[in-house]
């Protein structure tokens, strides 16, 4: 169902639009921005290997091995990655820091972190908008699946 935003005039130029929403997001930072831990490198590799060994042993206990299922390594690897990401996401979400805490910990009294984040937000928003615009020519065909059906089922009463 169309709303007022669908019927409005064309949007402002990208740069001023991105500036506005970037500024809005920066104002919301104290409430909405959290920094989370992220395990990288060897930590990811070690936990994934652990889960691969775990899954392999569990499957072997049920009679599923590479001899009986030659392609089982694909299943093992993909499920080990899912379990690894589940563990790291859970741990990361329990250790969140707000912008004020990060500024205090880093001694950022000039709010340079906020300025850097605003600049990155603006740049990424502009890039996302340009990417969408570059694909706009293909949208009518993609959106045809959302059109109202023709004929008696699609007619309004």
Please outline what is shown here.
The chain has 157 residues and is mainly alpha-helical. It has helices at residues 4-7, 14-32, 41-61, 72-93, 99-106, 112-134, 139-143, and strands spanning 34-36, 96-98.
Question: Your description of this structure?
Answer:
The chain has seven helices and two strands, in the order ααβααβααα. The chain is mainly alpha-helical. It has one domain (11-129). A two-stranded antiparallel sheet has the order 1-2. Helix 2 packs across helix 6 and helix 3 (41-61) crosses helix 4. The model has no long low-confidence stretch (mean pLDDT 85).
Count of individual beta strands: 2
The number of helical segments is: 7
User: Which regions have little confidence, pLDDT < 50, spanning 5+ residues?
Assistant: none
Global shape: flat
End-to-end CA span: 16 Å
Protein traits:
two-stranded antiparallel ribbon, flat, 65% helix, mainly alpha, 157 residues, 7 helices
